[in-house]
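FIELD: query
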Amino acid sequence: MLARDVTLYVLARLGLVVVVMGALMLFKVPLLPALAVGVVVALPASLFIFKGLRERVATGLDAHQAVRRAEREKLRSELRGDEGPLTQA
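FIELD: result
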């Protein structure tokens, strides 16, 4: 789920750059200046246009990081010997 959201967010931002660049090229702006302006304009615009998607990605990243942190702490405690044996014979 997280990978899909991140991919969607990246594609949405790239799409916004292409849209701005395409609009500028309709007015006969050369390719490189249109690309530069598209990148500069798309950065702040995407913060407002894709706010919900950005927050969903941030929430997913936080949840993923919490799971990884818990797994890392469990492994460290097992390596320190804080927990009992994993299987009882």
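FIELD: remark
The first helix runs from residue 2 to 26.
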